[in-house]
Write a structure and sequence with these properties.
With about 280 residues, the chain is α/β, with parallel strands linked by helices. It has 2 domains: about 70 residues, Winged helix-like DNA-binding domain superfamily/Winged helix DNA-binding domain (Arc Repressor Mutant, subunit A, Orthogonal Bundle), CATH 1.10.10; about 160 residues, Glucose-6-phosphate isomerase like protein, domain 1 (Rossmann fold). About 60% of the residues lie in helices and about 10% in strands. The protein has a 5-stranded parallel sheet with strand order 2-1-3-4-5, sandwiched between helices. It is globular, with a radius of gyration of 21 Å.
């Protein structure tokens, strides 16, 4: 739950969306679509617009971590009046090289903070467990997400677990068809709408494999197709797309999974690392 009730109302709603009931989604959609109206409304007015009881709106506010409607409204107002990108990345063409660098780095810091804020303890534990129990782990991603998939394999090789990464769409589908119920597939897509990745999810599901998704939008098709969704939060600005900003968060989620497994498999991981160091030592002067 949020520790600071002056931030993170909209990111929290977006990232928890797939877990909401039908009535909760009705309230969520209203808040996402009418943010400006809500900050000037009473709980009565919102409930009336939605044709639901006041208690339904109140329970939704509690569900996303606020003490009540008023606390949620204060957080929402803060986000609307001071949008995150205005705080840390109002980049203009007149900025110096150093100013641009500083704003981009501050944007990365905020992306990581926001992603950490919506990270769910149980979900990350489920993901670690699924990876630990897998006979084979396969990472899938296209374009920029394909680079994250390759980085994930580069890290996970150190754990001693059997891993593969694919960024070619045809190879992804071929490989996914060979998965078993004892395997785990990790699908990475910022938008969660990439047709090739969604097809891979369908193929992997048919095999009975456990599917982990790393994506930004809780309302995306990918988040509905995976068993364990892990979410990132990032903001789009004029000179930098939301997808680019999310890369640092995707890498950090992969790092968090990797380190958790290295700790859980301490002795096996150390042996694996030692063998790897010996193998690549001939490449060094």
């Amino acid at each position: 739950m949020p520790h600071n009730e002056t931030r993170h109302c909209l990111p929290r709603i977006r990232s928890s969306y797939s877990q909401f009931s039908e009535k909760e989604r009705q309230v969520a959609d209203y808040i996402l679509d009418h943010s400006n109206k809500i900050i000037h409304s009473t709980i009565n007015q919102v409930a009336e617009d939605l044709n639901v009881a006041d208690a339904t709106v109140f329970r939704f506010c509690k569900r996303i971590g606020f003490k009540g409607f008023q606390a949620m409204k204060i957080a929402l107002a803060a986000e609307i009046v001071n949008p995150i990108q205005d705080i840390h990345e109002t980049i203009s063409e007149s900025d110096s090289t150093k100013e641009v660098a500083e704003k981009v780095i501050r944007s990365n810091i905020r992306t990581l903070e926001d992603t950490l804020h919506i990270l769910d303890d149980r979900t990350i534990a489920q993901a670690v467990n699924a990876l630990m129990q897998a006979d084979h782990i396969e990472f899938y991603g296209n374009g920029g997400s394909g680079i994250i998939a390759m980085d994930a394999q580069h890290k996970f090789i150190r754990t001693g677990l059997r891993t593969t990464a694919y960024s070619d769409a045809h190879l992804q589908m071929m490989s996914a068809s060979q998965l078993s119920k004892n395997d785990t597939a990790v699908l990475i897509s910022h938008s969660g709408t990439n047709k090739d990745i969604l097809r891979v999810a369908d193929i992997a599901r048919e095999t009975g494999a456990t599917i982990i998704g790393i994506t930004n939008l809780a309302t995306s098709p990918l988040s509905k197709k995976v068993d364990i969704p892990l979410y990132t939060v990032s903001q789009e600005t004029e000179f930098r797309s939301e997808a680019l900003a999310s890369r640092i968060a995707q890498l950090s989620i992969v790092d968090a999974l990797h380190v958790n497994i290295m700790i859980a498999r301490k002795e096996k991981s150390q042996r694996s690392l030692q063998r790897m160091r010996e193998a690549i030592s001939t490449k060094r002067i």
